[in-house]
Amino acid sequence: MMDTNPGFAAVAYLLAIATSAMFLRLVPKAALHLQHNGESRYSTIDGLRGYLAFGVFIHHALITWFYLHTGVIDFPPSNFYSQLGQASVALFFMITGFLFWSRLLKQGRQHDWLAFAVSRVFRLYPLYLPLMLIVFVTVFNRQDWELKDSPAQLAGQVFDWLTFERPDINQYHQSGMLISNVTWTLAYEVFFYLALPLLGLVFIYRGHWLQVVLCLIGIYILYQVVGWEHSLKKHFLASFLGGIAAAYWVRRPHLVAWGRTHVATAVALLALTLAMTLFKRAFSLLPLLLLSTFFVIVASGNPLWGALRLRSVRWLGEISYSTYLLHGYVLWIMVQQLPHLMSFNPQSPVLYLLLMVVCSCLLIIIASLTFLYIEKPGIEAGKTFVNWLRQKQRPRKLADEAARER
Protein backbone atom coordinates (compact mmCIF):
# COMPACT_ATOMS: atom_id res chain seq x y z
CA MET A 1 0.00 0.00 0.00
CA MET A 2 1.21 3.52 -0.87
CA ASP A 3 0.32 4.83 2.59
CA THR A 4 2.77 2.53 4.42
CA ASN A 5 5.32 1.46 1.82
CA PRO A 6 8.45 3.70 1.93
CA GLY A 7 9.09 2.62 -1.66
CA PHE A 8 6.71 5.36 -2.85
CA ALA A 9 8.90 7.99 -1.18
CA ALA A 10 12.09 6.39 -2.52
CA VAL A 11 10.79 6.44 -6.10
CA ALA A 12 9.57 10.03 -5.73
CA TYR A 13 12.99 11.15 -4.42
CA LEU A 14 14.75 9.34 -7.28
CA LEU A 15 12.49 11.09 -9.79
CA ALA A 16 13.19 14.47 -8.20
CA ILE A 17 16.97 13.89 -8.17
CA ALA A 18 16.92 12.64 -11.78
CA THR A 19 14.85 15.66 -12.90
CA SER A 20 17.25 17.96 -11.06
CA ALA A 21 20.25 16.33 -12.75
CA MET A 22 18.61 16.65 -16.16
CA PHE A 23 17.73 20.30 -15.55
CA LEU A 24 21.35 21.06 -14.62
CA ARG A 25 22.51 19.40 -17.83
CA LEU A 26 19.98 21.16 -20.09
CA VAL A 27 19.99 24.63 -18.50
CA PRO A 28 23.52 26.12 -18.38
CA LYS A 29 22.33 29.02 -16.22
CA ALA A 30 21.46 26.61 -13.41
CA ALA A 31 24.74 24.71 -13.66
CA LEU A 32 26.65 28.02 -13.70
CA HIS A 33 24.87 29.21 -10.56
CA LEU A 34 25.72 25.98 -8.77
CA GLN A 35 29.32 26.20 -9.94
CA HIS A 36 29.68 29.80 -8.72
CA ASN A 37 28.20 28.85 -5.38
CA GLY A 38 30.73 26.03 -5.15
CA GLU A 39 31.17 24.11 -1.96
CA SER A 40 29.85 26.50 0.66
CA ARG A 41 30.91 26.26 4.28
CA TYR A 42 27.68 24.44 5.08
CA SER A 43 27.22 22.50 1.84
CA THR A 44 25.80 19.50 3.71
CA ILE A 45 23.00 21.71 5.01
CA ASP A 46 22.38 22.96 1.46
CA GLY A 47 21.90 19.34 0.40
CA LEU A 48 19.68 18.58 3.40
CA ARG A 49 17.31 21.38 2.41
CA GLY A 50 16.55 19.65 -0.87
CA TYR A 51 15.49 16.42 0.82
CA LEU A 52 13.39 18.31 3.37
CA ALA A 53 11.41 20.46 0.93
CA PHE A 54 10.61 17.52 -1.32
CA GLY A 55 9.74 15.45 1.75
CA VAL A 56 6.99 17.95 2.59
CA PHE A 57 5.62 17.49 -0.95
CA ILE A 58 5.49 13.70 -0.48
CA HIS A 59 3.80 14.20 2.90
CA HIS A 60 1.09 16.35 1.31
CA ALA A 61 0.73 13.95 -1.62
CA LEU A 62 -0.26 11.25 0.90
CA ILE A 63 -2.61 13.61 2.74
CA THR A 64 -4.25 14.44 -0.61
CA TRP A 65 -4.63 10.73 -1.41
CA PHE A 66 -6.55 10.11 1.80
CA TYR A 67 -8.59 13.28 1.33
CA LEU A 68 -9.77 12.01 -2.06
CA HIS A 69 -11.09 8.85 -0.40
CA THR A 70 -12.37 10.10 2.96
CA GLY A 71 -12.98 13.83 2.52
CA VAL A 72 -10.96 14.34 5.71
CA ILE A 73 -7.69 16.26 5.89
CA ASP A 74 -5.46 14.50 8.41
CA PHE A 75 -1.94 13.15 8.88
CA PRO A 76 -1.15 9.90 7.03
CA PRO A 77 -1.53 6.82 9.27
CA SER A 78 2.12 5.87 8.72
CA ASN A 79 4.62 7.42 11.16
CA PHE A 80 7.16 7.69 8.35
CA TYR A 81 4.92 9.65 5.99
CA SER A 82 3.59 11.78 8.82
CA GLN A 83 7.14 12.65 9.83
CA LEU A 84 8.22 13.41 6.26
CA GLY A 85 6.26 16.62 6.72
CA GLN A 86 6.70 17.33 10.41
CA ALA A 87 10.34 16.31 10.85
CA SER A 88 11.22 18.21 7.67
CA VAL A 89 9.68 21.39 9.07
CA ALA A 90 11.41 20.87 12.44
CA LEU A 91 14.76 20.49 10.64
CA PHE A 92 14.04 23.58 8.54
CA PHE A 93 13.57 25.52 11.80
CA MET A 94 16.87 24.07 13.05
CA ILE A 95 18.62 25.24 9.89
CA THR A 96 17.29 28.76 10.42
CA GLY A 97 18.34 28.77 14.08
CA PHE A 98 21.78 27.41 13.22
CA LEU A 99 22.64 29.76 10.36
CA PHE A 100 21.56 32.99 11.99
CA TRP A 101 22.79 32.18 15.49
CA SER A 102 26.15 31.18 13.99
CA ARG A 103 26.30 34.56 12.28
CA LEU A 104 25.53 36.32 15.55
CA LEU A 105 28.26 34.39 17.38
CA LYS A 106 30.76 35.16 14.63
CA GLN A 107 29.97 38.85 14.06
CA GLY A 108 28.90 39.88 17.56
CA ARG A 109 28.14 43.58 17.77
CA GLN A 110 29.36 44.04 14.18
CA HIS A 111 26.33 42.15 12.88
CA ASP A 112 24.76 44.08 9.97
CA TRP A 113 21.13 44.26 11.05
CA LEU A 114 20.08 46.45 8.12
CA ALA A 115 21.39 43.94 5.57
CA PHE A 116 19.78 41.13 7.59
CA ALA A 117 16.35 42.79 7.61
CA VAL A 118 16.41 43.68 3.92
CA SER A 119 17.69 40.24 2.91
CA ARG A 120 14.86 38.50 4.76
CA VAL A 121 12.19 40.64 3.05
CA PHE A 122 13.73 40.11 -0.38
CA ARG A 123 14.11 36.40 0.35
CA LEU A 124 10.52 35.71 1.38
CA TYR A 125 8.36 38.01 -0.73
CA PRO A 126 9.52 37.99 -4.40
CA LEU A 127 8.13 34.48 -4.84
CA TYR A 128 5.38 34.69 -2.24
CA LEU A 129 3.67 37.75 -3.76
CA PRO A 130 3.08 36.15 -7.21
CA LEU A 131 1.85 32.98 -5.51
CA MET A 132 -0.53 34.99 -3.35
CA LEU A 133 -1.83 36.78 -6.45
CA ILE A 134 -2.39 33.42 -8.17
CA VAL A 135 -4.35 32.17 -5.14
CA PHE A 136 -6.61 35.25 -5.10
CA VAL A 137 -7.17 35.08 -8.86
CA THR A 138 -7.93 31.34 -8.60
CA VAL A 139 -10.50 31.94 -5.85
CA PHE A 140 -12.30 34.72 -7.73
CA ASN A 141 -12.18 32.79 -10.99
CA ARG A 142 -13.85 29.80 -9.31
CA GLN A 143 -16.51 32.15 -7.93
CA ASP A 144 -17.17 33.76 -11.34
CA TRP A 145 -15.66 37.02 -10.04
CA GLU A 146 -18.56 37.65 -7.67
CA LEU A 147 -17.64 39.82 -4.68
CA LYS A 148 -19.13 38.12 -1.61
CA ASP A 149 -17.28 40.09 1.07
CA SER A 150 -17.10 43.84 1.47
CA PRO A 151 -14.06 45.71 0.12
CA ALA A 152 -12.97 46.33 3.72
CA GLN A 153 -13.15 42.62 4.51
CA LEU A 154 -11.24 41.80 1.35
CA ALA A 155 -8.55 44.33 2.26
CA GLY A 156 -8.25 42.64 5.66
CA GLN A 157 -7.84 39.28 3.95
CA VAL A 158 -5.10 40.69 1.71
CA PHE A 159 -3.29 42.04 4.77
CA ASP A 160 -3.58 38.72 6.59
CA TRP A 161 -2.20 36.82 3.60
CA LEU A 162 0.66 39.33 3.35
CA THR A 163 1.55 38.40 6.94
CA PHE A 164 1.35 34.67 6.09
CA GLU A 165 -2.04 34.02 7.67
CA ARG A 166 -4.55 32.11 5.54
CA PRO A 167 -8.10 33.34 6.15
CA ASP A 168 -10.82 32.29 3.71
CA ILE A 169 -10.79 34.61 0.70
CA ASN A 170 -14.17 36.03 -0.34
CA GLN A 171 -15.91 33.23 1.62
CA TYR A 172 -14.11 30.51 -0.37
CA HIS A 173 -13.95 27.61 2.09
CA GLN A 174 -10.43 26.60 3.14
CA SER A 175 -8.66 28.95 0.74
CA GLY A 176 -5.34 27.97 2.30
CA MET A 177 -5.75 24.42 0.99
CA LEU A 178 -4.97 25.73 -2.49
CA ILE A 179 -1.35 25.86 -1.29
CA SER A 180 -1.59 23.08 1.35
CA ASN A 181 -1.52 25.78 4.06
CA VAL A 182 2.30 25.80 3.93
CA THR A 183 2.70 29.44 4.96
CA TRP A 184 2.08 28.69 8.66
CA THR A 185 5.79 27.94 9.01
CA LEU A 186 6.73 31.37 7.66
CA ALA A 187 5.08 33.00 10.69
CA TYR A 188 7.51 31.06 12.92
CA GLU A 189 10.44 32.08 10.73
CA VAL A 190 9.38 35.75 10.89
CA PHE A 191 9.04 35.57 14.68
CA PHE A 192 12.57 34.19 14.93
CA TYR A 193 13.93 36.93 12.64
CA LEU A 194 12.22 39.68 14.65
CA ALA A 195 13.25 38.20 17.99
CA LEU A 196 16.87 37.57 16.94
CA PRO A 197 18.31 41.00 17.93
CA LEU A 198 16.55 40.77 21.31
CA LEU A 199 17.77 37.21 21.83
CA GLY A 200 21.26 38.39 20.95
CA LEU A 201 21.07 41.13 23.59
CA VAL A 202 19.99 38.57 26.19
CA PHE A 203 22.33 35.67 25.44
CA ILE A 204 25.32 37.04 23.50
CA TYR A 205 25.85 40.76 24.15
CA ARG A 206 24.85 40.45 27.82
CA GLY A 207 24.30 43.98 29.01
CA HIS A 208 22.77 45.35 32.22
CA TRP A 209 20.08 43.24 33.92
CA LEU A 210 17.46 45.89 33.05
CA GLN A 211 18.33 45.44 29.36
CA VAL A 212 17.79 41.70 29.73
CA VAL A 213 14.39 42.22 31.37
CA LEU A 214 13.26 44.70 28.70
CA CYS A 215 14.40 42.36 25.93
CA LEU A 216 12.51 39.42 27.44
CA ILE A 217 9.38 41.59 27.63
CA GLY A 218 9.96 42.59 24.01
CA ILE A 219 10.24 38.94 22.97
CA TYR A 220 6.99 38.14 24.75
CA ILE A 221 5.21 41.05 23.02
CA LEU A 222 6.54 39.87 19.65
CA TYR A 223 5.33 36.37 20.45
CA GLN A 224 1.83 37.71 21.04
CA VAL A 225 1.80 40.05 18.01
CA VAL A 226 3.12 37.54 15.46
CA GLY A 227 0.76 34.88 16.84
CA TRP A 228 -2.22 37.24 16.99
CA GLU A 229 -4.48 35.17 14.72
CA HIS A 230 -3.15 31.71 15.62
CA SER A 231 -0.95 31.54 18.68
CA LEU A 232 2.59 30.31 18.08
CA LYS A 233 3.09 26.91 19.67
CA LYS A 234 6.02 26.77 22.08
CA HIS A 235 6.90 23.17 21.21
CA PHE A 236 7.23 24.20 17.54
CA LEU A 237 9.52 27.07 18.54
CA ALA A 238 11.65 24.58 20.49
CA SER A 239 12.92 23.28 17.12
CA PHE A 240 15.03 26.42 16.74
CA LEU A 241 16.95 25.39 19.86
CA GLY A 242 18.35 22.37 18.03
CA GLY A 243 19.88 24.72 15.47
CA ILE A 244 21.22 27.05 18.16
CA ALA A 245 22.82 24.08 19.92
CA ALA A 246 24.45 23.09 16.62
CA ALA A 247 25.87 26.63 16.29
CA TYR A 248 27.82 26.06 19.54
CA TRP A 249 28.70 22.47 18.58
CA VAL A 250 30.48 23.48 15.35
CA ARG A 251 32.63 26.02 17.23
CA ARG A 252 34.43 23.12 18.93
CA PRO A 253 36.89 21.47 16.52
CA HIS A 254 37.00 18.14 18.35
CA LEU A 255 33.20 17.79 18.12
CA VAL A 256 33.26 18.71 14.43
CA ALA A 257 36.03 16.17 13.81
CA TRP A 258 33.97 13.45 15.48
CA GLY A 259 30.85 14.59 13.61
CA ARG A 260 32.56 13.77 10.31
CA THR A 261 33.46 10.19 11.20
CA HIS A 262 31.70 7.09 9.90
CA VAL A 263 30.53 6.35 13.44
CA ALA A 264 28.82 9.75 13.54
CA THR A 265 27.19 9.00 10.18
CA ALA A 266 25.74 5.80 11.60
CA VAL A 267 24.56 7.63 14.73
CA ALA A 268 22.92 10.36 12.62
CA LEU A 269 21.08 7.90 10.40
CA LEU A 270 19.99 5.82 13.41
CA ALA A 271 18.66 8.92 15.19
CA LEU A 272 16.78 9.99 12.05
CA THR A 273 15.35 6.50 11.53
CA LEU A 274 14.13 6.29 15.12
CA ALA A 275 12.53 9.74 14.93
CA MET A 276 10.82 8.91 11.62
CA THR A 277 9.49 5.48 12.58
CA LEU A 278 8.79 5.45 16.33
CA PHE A 279 6.92 8.74 16.61
CA LYS A 280 3.81 10.11 14.94
CA ARG A 281 4.65 13.73 15.78
CA ALA A 282 7.99 15.55 15.54
CA PHE A 283 7.37 18.41 17.97
CA SER A 284 7.85 16.71 21.32
CA LEU A 285 10.93 16.16 23.47
CA LEU A 286 12.24 12.75 22.34
CA PRO A 287 11.82 13.15 18.56
CA LEU A 288 13.25 16.68 18.74
CA LEU A 289 16.30 15.37 20.63
CA LEU A 290 16.76 12.65 18.00
CA LEU A 291 16.38 15.14 15.16
CA SER A 292 18.79 17.54 16.89
CA THR A 293 21.35 14.73 17.18
CA PHE A 294 20.98 14.09 13.46
CA PHE A 295 21.24 17.79 12.68
CA VAL A 296 24.38 18.61 14.69
CA ILE A 297 26.20 15.83 12.84
CA VAL A 298 25.06 17.15 9.45
CA ALA A 299 26.04 20.68 10.54
CA SER A 300 29.52 19.34 11.31
CA GLY A 301 29.92 18.79 7.57
CA ASN A 302 29.02 15.11 7.50
CA PRO A 303 27.73 14.33 3.96
CA LEU A 304 26.02 11.08 5.06
CA TRP A 305 28.22 8.97 2.79
CA GLY A 306 27.85 11.45 -0.05
CA ALA A 307 24.06 11.68 -0.09
CA LEU A 308 24.13 15.40 0.74
CA ARG A 309 26.86 16.40 -1.72
CA LEU A 310 25.41 15.22 -5.03
CA ARG A 311 25.15 18.12 -7.52
CA SER A 312 21.52 17.31 -8.22
CA VAL A 313 20.72 17.25 -4.49
CA ARG A 314 22.50 20.55 -3.91
CA TRP A 315 20.36 22.02 -6.70
CA LEU A 316 17.27 20.69 -4.92
CA GLY A 317 18.59 22.59 -1.90
CA GLU A 318 18.92 25.81 -3.93
CA ILE A 319 15.31 25.56 -5.10
CA SER A 320 13.96 24.33 -1.75
CA TYR A 321 11.98 27.51 -0.99
CA SER A 322 10.26 27.37 -4.39
CA THR A 323 9.61 23.65 -3.94
CA TYR A 324 8.16 24.21 -0.48
CA LEU A 325 6.03 27.21 -1.38
CA LEU A 326 4.68 26.02 -4.74
CA HIS A 327 4.12 22.30 -4.26
CA GLY A 328 0.67 22.70 -2.70
CA TYR A 329 -0.68 24.64 -5.67
CA VAL A 330 0.90 22.21 -8.14
CA LEU A 331 -0.75 19.34 -6.24
CA TRP A 332 -4.10 21.13 -6.26
CA ILE A 333 -3.97 21.73 -10.02
CA MET A 334 -2.85 18.19 -10.83
CA VAL A 335 -5.19 16.34 -8.47
CA GLN A 336 -8.23 18.59 -8.10
CA GLN A 337 -8.43 20.26 -11.53
CA LEU A 338 -6.69 18.15 -14.17
CA PRO A 339 -8.98 15.09 -13.68
CA HIS A 340 -11.99 17.26 -14.59
CA LEU A 341 -10.31 18.49 -17.77
CA MET A 342 -9.07 15.06 -18.87
CA SER A 343 -11.88 12.93 -17.43
CA PHE A 344 -10.02 10.42 -15.30
CA ASN A 345 -10.45 9.23 -11.73
CA PRO A 346 -7.55 10.20 -9.42
CA GLN A 347 -8.90 7.81 -6.78
CA SER A 348 -7.49 4.92 -8.79
CA PRO A 349 -4.18 3.89 -7.12
CA VAL A 350 -2.43 3.35 -10.47
CA LEU A 351 -3.61 6.65 -11.93
CA TYR A 352 -2.73 8.51 -8.75
CA LEU A 353 0.78 7.05 -8.78
CA LEU A 354 1.20 8.09 -12.42
CA LEU A 355 -0.11 11.52 -11.52
CA MET A 356 2.48 11.80 -8.75
CA VAL A 357 5.25 10.78 -11.15
CA VAL A 358 4.30 13.67 -13.42
CA CYS A 359 3.78 15.97 -10.43
CA SER A 360 7.23 15.20 -8.96
CA CYS A 361 9.05 16.00 -12.19
CA LEU A 362 6.88 19.03 -12.98
CA LEU A 363 7.38 20.48 -9.49
CA ILE A 364 11.18 20.36 -9.78
CA ILE A 365 11.10 22.01 -13.21
CA ILE A 366 8.73 24.77 -12.06
CA ALA A 367 10.68 25.35 -8.83
CA SER A 368 13.94 25.52 -10.79
CA LEU A 369 12.53 28.14 -13.14
CA THR A 370 10.99 30.24 -10.37
CA PHE A 371 14.29 30.13 -8.49
CA LEU A 372 16.26 31.31 -11.52
CA TYR A 373 13.84 33.99 -12.66
CA ILE A 374 12.10 35.16 -9.47
CA GLU A 375 13.97 34.11 -6.32
CA LYS A 376 17.53 34.73 -7.50
CA PRO A 377 16.78 38.17 -9.00
CA GLY A 378 14.91 39.00 -5.79
CA ILE A 379 17.95 38.11 -3.67
CA GLU A 380 20.18 40.22 -5.92
CA ALA A 381 17.70 43.11 -5.74
CA GLY A 382 17.95 42.95 -1.95
CA LYS A 383 21.73 43.31 -2.10
CA THR A 384 21.40 46.21 -4.53
CA PHE A 385 18.87 47.89 -2.24
CA VAL A 386 21.20 47.57 0.76
CA ASN A 387 24.04 49.13 -1.25
CA TRP A 388 21.73 51.98 -2.27
CA LEU A 389 20.78 52.57 1.38
CA ARG A 390 24.46 52.59 2.35
CA GLN A 391 25.22 55.20 -0.30
CA LYS A 392 22.34 57.34 0.96
CA GLN A 393 23.65 57.08 4.53
CA ARG A 394 27.29 57.87 3.69
CA PRO A 395 26.90 61.64 3.02
CA ARG A 396 24.85 61.96 6.22
CA LYS A 397 27.56 60.20 8.24
CA LEU A 398 30.28 62.40 6.72
CA ALA A 399 28.22 65.51 7.54
CA ASP A 400 27.76 64.34 11.15
CA GLU A 401 31.48 63.65 11.51
CA ALA A 402 32.34 67.09 10.11
CA ALA A 403 29.89 68.72 12.50
CA ARG A 404 31.47 66.93 15.48
CA GLU A 405 34.95 68.04 14.39
CA ARG A 406 33.83 71.68 14.40
Automatic annotation (TrEMBL):
Keywords: Acyltransferase, Membrane, Transferase, Transmembrane, Transmembrane helix
GO molecular function: acyltransferase activity, transferring groups other than amino-acyl groups
Transmembrane segments: 6-27, 48-68, 80-101, 122-140, 186-204, 209-226, 232-250, 262-279, 285-307, 319-338, 350-374
Pfam families with a match to the protein in the record: Acyl_transf_3
Ranges in a coiled coil: none
Domain Acyltransferase: start-end pairs: 45-367
Tagged with keyword Zinc: no
InterPro entries for this protein: Acyl_transf_3_dom, Acyltransferase_3
Name recorded for this polypeptide: Acyltransferase
Organism: Pseudomonas kribbensis
